[in-house]
Amino acid sequence: GPDCELHDVLRRAVDRLPRRMRAAVLLRYYDDMSEPEVAAALGVSVGTVKSTVARAMAKLRADAELASAE
To answer: How much is the pTM?
Structure first.
């Protein structure tokens, strides 16, 4: 179904992210960790987690729009 397709698109988009960015997104959303938990897991500040996740989500959004335009 369309849900599965979206998941594939998302998976590929996440795979294209830089390693640290991908880790932050997966911990935050896939493992459902809080920002402080992600920060501790990655050994960075909460501010870094916030900005990294925000940049990653912007990239993913742009990727999803590209994919849906195909």
So the answer is: 0.79
